């Protein structure tokens, strides 16, 4: 028991330092921006005080260090929130000056309080040493031994070698239930919205560090082999959850009545049926993240927690698994959460409420969210948006199935509208996944103006006009051609409900990293065969023969990932001269799948997915040879495939030199072209 307590003390100290250090760095960064204006002296004063307190604690740290770090952390939080509210004009210059003066007094008092506590602690330590016998051991050695025994080795290594950025990113995993898989891209966007990391590159590196240290497990991978979903092992999650809560970094709660905390910074709610809406004891004025998982609570709970006037400085709002939002809720978000950077929710598919209808459109008031970087409404039906959304100055990721309001159709009378000028000159939108092309004007005409676009998803509806398809063809041509100057572009087109003939009009040489086509094709698109730099290609329900597909792919020499999906896929014969650089292949047959992989074919393959519940292909037969694929790591099968087939594959995997993993897929549907 004593060893466990000592280990937790060491872990608590590391976590406390990381959280406080990150808070101070964030506050100082914002103060430096203010120091160039009218409040230069005040900002410099607060910077000096924060760094002085931080240095003092670091120099004279001891067993009570985490206690001294708490007031420093809270002071930094208060400074950061004060500056943020002033920056978006939530507070007037007079109110801001008053708050800054109060923070200066508080900073001095905090420093003096910490010095007094440290002086008392030093005297107590000297007194304790005087009574301590020579043969009672060394506390530091005991703590180190305790850490060795009680904290997972991977976490010990991270605590000893990594910066506070890694630790804060790790603590953010406490948001998710132990059975919830965190998706890579939304996780990184949350980190960025919270300011836990500076730049996407740093966020990617932090996640890579956590995975390589085996602190975070990879649950699923993307087409290119990168992590798609992840989660920490249960022992790691237990080790960090208590410290995350004690340092006021993240609170995990299933009933608001149990949340006995005066000031919450980040809150993850998992309401049960007994959850109440009693929020009286909790102060949400400094809340930065609110995420609600599962939807089993009573309506009164949601009405209480969705009172957005309580969240003055909220940065991240994730309501994807919450009750559907009505127009009143969405308006309250737009009018109250002016610091919001990440917003995720889902519209209800069936709207039968007359008194307060569930919305399927984003209101014009979204223009008030000037800091918004991500809007994610994926899983909803078609969502109507206005030009105000597209003119948000910091919007980078627009995720859902969108169409432009018909009320904004007057935007297309000429090329001089304010929206068109903004998209050409100021827009930072990078990912549009995606928009609907029907018979109305909108995104087909605007796509070619979006100067920073990198990833696009397009749905072509059954009523898509010839004029809109022609504009889409022109926009795609420009998108591919511009990819020659900037690598890494991704394009996904779903034309299952209309003719894919418009793709045959695209004549362009350029570059894409990833292309997904879903829908019937009369011929292999010529532009695909001319693409440079393409590493990922998905062809779904095209009805092309194997020979047509093989001829079209013959020039794509650097292809690393190939996915083919049909109702009846095959027969396919993959020979040694085909796809010599291919690393991953996914073959989907909804009804049947017939494939032959000859000896010496696919030498670089690490992943083979054969998704068909009627699969009757066995390894080690003349039809499928895998023994020569020395780097093979995984084989994925349909969950309803015959158990005898699975056992044959498992036996072949055990006999393989690399012992690849054999597992069943979660789900594959006709929307397989989706990114």
Automatic annotation (TrEMBL):
**Mind telling me what this protein is named?**
Uncharacterized protein
Biological source species: Avena sativa (Oat)
